[in-house]
Amino acid sequence: MSGMEKQSRLLFAQVDHLSGEVLGFAIGKIMEEGACNVQVIPSVTKKNRPGSILIIDVPPEQESRVALFLARELKVSGYHRIDATHVFSQVTFLKKSVTISRNGSSLNLSCEVKVIGDPSAPLSLDIEPDTFRREIARARTFGFMRDVSKLWSAGYALGASFENTLVVSED
Q1: Number of neighbours of residue 16 by Cβ within 10 angstroms
Q2: 3-state SS assignment for residue 35
Q3: What SS3 state is found at 31?
Q4: Which DSSP symbol is given to 140?
Q5: Rounded to two decimals, what is the model's pTM?
Q6: Residues whose CB falls within 8 Å of the CB of residue 30, separated by 6 or more in sequence, listed in order
Q7: At CA 50, angle to CA 46 and CA 55, rounded to 5?
Q8: Residue pLDDT, tens place only, 77-109
Q9: Which of 40, 42, 87, 113 sits a CA distance of 20 to 30 A from 80?
């Protein structure tokens, strides 16, 4: 994939004394100190204890801030550094009309779509999970065929019909 590039550093730091809650807090703080991304890989230390390896993607000019946090707050006495080039494509979020079709029926929705690449000739289009939850799932415009009669008899979904609702069958 060709695209845009920026210089970056990957820092590898081992932590073997943090609970999951503290690790989650630490990731947020590392991001606040200037990291672009933090990945966590479970590991087993040389003393056969559970641990984690943090892979921290940081701009070179922010490394010292992140390193200070690692030493002061996480008690990390050292880390590995790899100079890297981050290659990436343009990412844009656009409001798009999306059509869901099945068995000759279709439903048109308008929602935010993640566009990777040039929006006029995208490499990829995707609806992010957060967007799905916020703009589609909460609309309650779909359901399972097996639940329709139960919902109607219980007094729910009375405004729903097969014309305004996406109904999913067992097939």
Answers
A1: 14
A2: coil
A3: helix
A4: T
A5: 0.65
A6: 38, 54, 56, 66, 69, 70
A7: 85
A8: 999 999 999 888 889 888 877 776 666 666 677
A9: 87
User: Beta strands 105-116 and 124-126: pairing type?
Assistant: antiparallel
How do residues 108-144 score in pLDDT, each as one tens digit?
777 788 888 888 888 888 888 887 777 666 555 566 7
Structure-token match 């993640």, residue found: 114
Backbone CA torsion sign across 117, 121, 124, 130:
positive
**CA–CA distance, 45 with 157 (Å, rounded to integer):** 55
Given the structure tokens 């067992």, which residue do they identify? 170
Distance of CA 127 to the CA centre of its chain: 11
pLDDT in tens, 20-79: 888 999 999 999 999 999 999 999 988 898 899 999 999 999 999 999 999 999 999 999
Identity at 149, one-letter amino acid code: S
Inter-helix orientation angle 63-74/20-32, to 10°: 150
- Specify whether the backbone of 48 is left (phi greater than 0), alpha (psi in -120 to 50) or beta: left
Pair type for strands 4-15 and 124-126 = unpaired
